[in-house]
Amino acid sequence: MSGAVGAIGLVQILEWSGCCFGLLGSALLALNNRYSGYGFPVFLVSNGFWIVFGFLTGAMGLVVMQIGFTATSLIGAWNWLIKARRNEPLAASLGERPNTECLIHKKCG
To answer: CA-CA distance, 39 to 60, in Å (whole number)?
Structure first.
């Protein structure tokens, strides 16, 4: 197997991995349930694949877009997974259940 064929194989693996992880992340978010927040770490994996793919293929527009998507995925992971969990112990210590309607559906009040 020559180096060129191996590189084409790597590029295809990166492309399809980015695609599959991106679709899985989108599906998790679309469910809009307690597991939806895990779509953001899945997106981060997808972003990584796409960034490497973009560098290897010279698709710098794709790299820039994926860097932006990485930032939004980090914000989403913070809001859905980290910030939401930080609020749970406080609610539990007050004898209250966390308001999942507020966390998931943004119906607060």
So the answer is: 25
